[in-house]
Amino acid sequence: MALLRTFTMMLGELDFLGTFVQPYWGAGACGIQLPFRAPTFFFLVVFILFMPILLMNLLIGLAVGDIESVRRNAQLKRIAMQVELHSELERKLPRCFIAKVDKSHVVEYPNARNVCTTGILSWLLCGFRPMENKDGGEQWNPPEQLVLEELGKQKWRLRKLAGAIEDQTQLIRLIVQKMEIRTEADDCDEGRRDEEKKNQDSGDSRWKEQRMRMKLRSSSVCRSLNL
């Protein structure tokens, strides 16, 4: 009974106690008992379960349909109001203005220059030019000039960083060659490795021979001077 009472309270204006509970126990106002107790409560339970579901779905469907119809009508009404506004403006504006504005086609000449218009614009914009000091230097630079200066500084920094990275790369290569550190790039076939080793040995021997010749020449020059 408590569960049924809770559901009936959710339904709204439904006198569950006076209509079903008191007649069920024979304690009604006129002392009349509830006839067909089982079918009555069965239909009551069915009503409590299905009525909220059907009612909510019906209300949601009506709300969605109403929203769509209101939106469509609002769009049509807005277009109609715009048409009325344009027609009112056309009636109130002078005919000479409408004849200049309302044209079926317009021809544009982008390369044509109007000297009068250009002179007026240059005269109007002359007040916005950068101010100059008495010494001839600019006191205020436009944003474009500042951007160009900043770009130049960034390019100089990038070039400096690129040079530093290149120097470090060369230094690392020399260190690796001096310490005879092998990397994955040095892994190759045996025949090719032997050829590279021979070439390297021949280059080292040539460099040593040239160094010895330079030492001999310097020693001979020193002896001749001493003599």
UniProtKB/TrEMBL annotation:
UniProt keyword annotations, A-Z: Membrane, Transmembrane, Transmembrane helix
Biased composition (Basic and acidic residues): 186-212
Stretch list, region Disordered: 186-227
Biased amino acid composition, Polar residues: 217-227
Domain of life, source organism: Eukaryota
Residues annotated as transmembrane: 41-64
Transmembrane helix listed as a keyword: yes
UniProt name for this protein: Transient receptor potential cation channel subfamily A member 1
Biological source species: Darwinula stevensoni
